[in-house]
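README, section 4: Worked example with a bound small molecule

Sections 1 through 3 covered apo chains. Here we extend the same pipeline to holo records, where the ligand is supplied as SMILES alongside the sequence. The molecule in this example is flavin-adenine dinucleotide. Nothing else about the input changes; the structure line simply encodes the ligand pose together with the chain.
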Amino acid sequence: MSDTPLEYDALVIGAGAGGLFTAARLVQAGYRTLVTERLDRVGGRASTHDIDGFKVNNGAIVIEIGGITEQTFTELGIPFPVREPKPPILYRIKNKDVDVTGGGWGMLIGQLTRQGAKLVSGLGAARNDSGLPEDEISTADWVRKFTKNEAVHGIFHNMCGSIFAVGSEDLPARVFLTYFTRKSAFKRFGFCPDGTIGVWQALADYITGNGSDVWLNTEVTGLQVTENRVTSATVRRDGTDTRVNVRVAVSDAGPSATVGLLGADTLPADYVAEVARKDRPCAMIAVTFASRTPLIKASGMLSFATTQRLCYIANFTDLCPEMAPEGWHLYVGTAVPKPAIGDFDEAAETELLMADLREQVPGFEQARILSTTITRDGWPPQRAVAGFDLPHDTPLDNLWNVGDAVKEYANGGTTACAETAQLVVEKIRAAVPVATGAGDPA
Ligand SMILES: Cc1cc2nc3c(=O)[nH]c(=O)nc-3n(C[C@H](O)[C@H](O)[C@H](O)COP(=O)(O)OP(=O)(O)OC[C@H]3O[C@@H](n4cnc5c(N)ncnc54)[C@H](O)[C@@H]3O)c2cc1C
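The generated complex, written as structure tokens:
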């Protein structure tokens, strides 16, 4: 342990989306903040690696435009590095790639079945609270009340997979309908030309450019608690442990890992039990592939109605040619395995995704496969299935969780992370005001 402890107003554990959104807001509010990230890069499950000049995302693919993510960038006064495809999404229905922009649910469902009127009115009714079903009904069961049409079920299934990383049988209908009738509902989104890491690097640059720190390859190995407050953290950097004294701590590592850093015996047993019970991560499979000839027409996302596992393909290079060497086109195809929660056969599920890609994408067999990633367990697409999140508050007075295990009801992905950051920083500002004399750097 190095001799002299370091002093920061705030410690943020983890440089994922949740951690960096939180740290940037704290810095703007005048808290001198240390972000520690145990990996060698920012972004966590929304980061990017270089493979032979291709920018290959390890997780998040599209970033929402026009919601809390972009709003955070605007509030920080930094450019939002995301390009928007128009139309954002095409749906492959009966072998045609259809643009339903502006036509809403009626137009989408009308393409799939002539008997969709009841389903469309069910969706309309959900705009009133009395039209929302009970929590126990899954999205698949709710759709089944209106239609047996397989393509309709396929579209709903793949929408659940694309946004919530579970199939329609695992997502409460109430969550799906709340999201699509009350939230921004990912209507606009885009890609970052640096790969998704570019979004988080911009936040990290804001943090370091305003007198705070982001330390990579640095793991928090323990949190010390006195009188129900985190007073310091043990931080391992370059093989040396350092004590960091803090007034506020925020964890982006997920509630289970946060409990581990504190020691379960320092926390009330019912909280520890709730964290264990709600630790139900889902899973996803993503195949990133490249081709010298264009393989799909959509310039954003292409979603499917009748696949076995393929939820959508994203086309990166139509808008962001920087993501591939000159002359190459870069894509990712994603799937939610069955089951999406708990154990599944990785080889069989990956093969079902590959079979869909071969069937749906002429030329896929000649494409170069850059990576096949299975995200699950401790590194999942969502730490909690939407609707089953933990609160971001903890039993300690100055410790909060952020990220996709503590999402607000019916939200998902990096958008949900941005929202947790906004809410938590509001709470921090009320509970632990910035130290007197600290200025607003922004
Ligand atoms: C295949 C896939 C596709 C996805 N597609 C999308 C999409 O298109 N759009 C979207 O918005 N979302 C998408 N998501 C979801 C999105 O990636 C996640 O919801 C989001 O990135 C989670 O961020 P987080 O901040 O909660 O956690 P994380 O990204 O996990 O960040 C936590 C960080 O904390 C670090 N850490 C943990 N413990 C410690 C410690 N003790 N000390 C220091 N550091 C520590 C970890 O290394 C990690 O970097 C996708 C995810 C996957 C896997």
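What to look for in the output: The pocket of flavin-adenine dinucleotide is lined by residues 13-19, 36-39, 44-46, 59-62, 219-220, 252-253, 257, 284, 286, 334, 375, 381-382, 403-404, 413-415, 417 (CB under 6 Å). The first strand starts at residue 6 and ends at 13.

Section 5 describes how to batch many such records.
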